[in-house]
């Protein structure tokens, strides 16, 4: 038994190298994914897969998804953790020795019970939100010639393009799949076995390519590894060294492929440096060797491509009319509906409050706003017995001003509709803990889209530069158009 800390809480777990997934029998935040399993009873079932949660085991800190089921009598540490964290298990009579990557060891007693629940995948998993990634992690990267070369060229990289280290350790990605690939998994397991028995074979590292997307080194795979490389259509074997600041690791494979295929390389003043004008890319002469350790990881499907739109984004946007998008601060829509009629309380007489003097910067600060709303048809000139003052206020960090219309006196004499405005706190509390994706839509000038009846416009008159204007749409600050 070992102690695994999950989200700050300690759990006693049994090591089970026969279990594909680590399992916990207490509730965890669920993802939308489930895994078909066959329990000890032989009955099929589907267990939920949790979201990735922070874990700590001795000196190891990592994020991990767990199968969650109260039916499992004991928490299990399965192959997913044992393999991804490079745990070595040595089994002897009455004892299992666990060796961690830093060399520390933990001795565990073998279970005395002969029965425990076995789990296996029944058929293809349903992994909608996660991807399976197979890669060869560079062994002892900090001691390699490649690392030393990158260190020497580092100052030039910083001058050329803003870059940052990738989130993952240096590795060569061999395959990426959004669904379980049983056939590839079988081949990969064979590679892992061969590496454990005979050691990790070295591969050659060739030229280092430097582009706007980042810095990466091309890899010359052995014939055995080349058979397992499944990304040749869009990528070339490579090790990502740096990525563009704010960029994505997924762009590095196509960049290296373009560099390998380029034929317009020309020498520079540095004999080790060539330039491709067609790709706006540099190539650094380099030859060394590294040993890739075969690993398989279950990662978020957006891992390494966090800033990329869905591949069907442009097709989906075609369905939206151009009028859906605002083209400027005064560009507003118009809802096809009957104009709103505002009722006044019995006995109401027109309210006239003269405009108090404004500073020159206030007058100039809303001039473009007034002109834009006039052109958009939101404002119109008028002569009205009603008048209430405006008070432009500066926008934070901007030279412009926001026009604020003081309609408090008008709001006191109208009959409100008492529409219920949704409480954002209530709405947010209704969102379950399993929700991970949120969309924020800014409805630009929302109430300016609502037409106002002609007979209800006079009460919203105001004065600007000695002229009266009023609204043809619901004004901001009115009791039934709250912000």
From TrEMBL:
* Entry keyword set: Hydrolase
Chain ranges of the Reverse transcriptase domain: 374-483
Record flagged with keyword Kinase: no
PROSITE patterns in alphabetical order: ASP_PROT_RETROV, RT_POL
Q: Which GO terms describe its biological process?
A: proteolysis
**Residue ranges of every copy of the Peptidase A2 domain listed in the record:** 11-81
Give one GO molecular function term: aspartic-type endopeptidase activity
Looking up InterPro entries in the UniProt record yields:
DNA/RNA_pol_sf, Peptidase_A2_cat, Peptidase_aspartic_dom_sf, Retropepsins, RT_dom, Viral_Replic_Matur_Polypro
PANTHER family found in the cross-reference section = POL PROTEIN (PTHR33064), RIBONUCLEASE H (PTHR33064:SF37)
Protein name in the entry: Peptidase A2 domain-containing protein
Q: Which organism is it from?
A: Gasterosteus aculeatus aculeatus (three-spined stickleback)
């Amino acid at each position: 038994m070992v102690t695994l800390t999950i989200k700050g809480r300690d759990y006693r777990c049994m090591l089970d190298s026969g279990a594909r997934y680590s399992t916990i029998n207490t509730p965890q935040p669920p993802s939308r994914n489930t895994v078909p399993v066959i329990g000890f009873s032989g009955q099929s079932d589907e267990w939920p897969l949790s979201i990735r949660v922070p874990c700590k085991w001795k000196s190891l800190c990592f994020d991990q998804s767990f199968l969650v089921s109260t039916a499992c009598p004991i928490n299990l540490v399965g192959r997913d953790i044992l393999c991804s964290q490079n745990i070595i298990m040595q089994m002897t009579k009455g004892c299992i020795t666990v060796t961690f990557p830093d060399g520390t060891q933990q001795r565990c007693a073998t279970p005395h019970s002969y029965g425990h629940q076995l789990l296996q995948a029944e058929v293809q998993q349903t992994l909608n939100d996660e991807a399976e990634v197979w890669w060869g992690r560079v062994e002892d990267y900090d001691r390699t010639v490649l690392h030393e070369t990158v260190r020497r060229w580092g100052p030039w990289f910083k001058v050329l393009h803003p870059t940052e280290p990738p989130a993952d350790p240096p590795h060569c990605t061999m395959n990426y799949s959004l669904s379980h690939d049983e056939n590839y998994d079988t081949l990969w397991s064979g590679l892992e076995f061969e590496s454990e028995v005979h050691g990790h074979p070295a591969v050659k590292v060739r030229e280092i390519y430097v582009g706007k997307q980042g810095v990466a080194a091309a890899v010359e795979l052995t014939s055995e590894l080349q058979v397992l490389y499944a990304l040749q259509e869009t990528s070339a074997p490579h090790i990502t060294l740096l990525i563009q600041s704010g960029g994505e690791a997924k762009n590095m494979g196509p960049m290296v492929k373009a560099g390998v295929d380029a034929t317009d390389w020309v020498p520079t003043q540095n004999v080790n440096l060539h330039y491709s004008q067609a790709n706006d890319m540099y190539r650094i002469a380099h030859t060394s060797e590294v040993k890739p350790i075969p690993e398989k990881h279950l990662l978020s499907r957006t891992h390494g491509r966090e800033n990329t739109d869905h591949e069907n984004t442009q097709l989906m946007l075609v369905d939206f009319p151009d009028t859906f998008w605002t083209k400027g601060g005064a560009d507003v829509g118009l809802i096809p509906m009957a104009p709103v009629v505002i009722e006044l309380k019995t006995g109401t007489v027109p309210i006239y409050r003269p405009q108090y003097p404004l500073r020159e910067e206030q007058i100039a600060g809303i001039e473009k706003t007034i002109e834009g709303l006039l052109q958009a048809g939101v404002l119109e000139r008028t002569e009205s017995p009603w008048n209430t003052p405006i008070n432009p206020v500066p926008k934070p960090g901007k030279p412009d001003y926001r026009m604020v219309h003081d309609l408090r006196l008008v709001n006191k004499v109208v009959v409100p509709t008492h529409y219920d405005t949704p409480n954002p706190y209530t709405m947010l509390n209704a969102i379950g803990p399993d929700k991970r994706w949120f969309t924020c839509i800014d409805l630009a000038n929302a109430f300016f889209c609502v037409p106002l009846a002609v007979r209800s416009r006079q009460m919203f008159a105001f004065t600007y530069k000695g002229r009266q204007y009023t609204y043809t749409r619901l004004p901001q600050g009115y009791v039934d158009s709250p912000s």
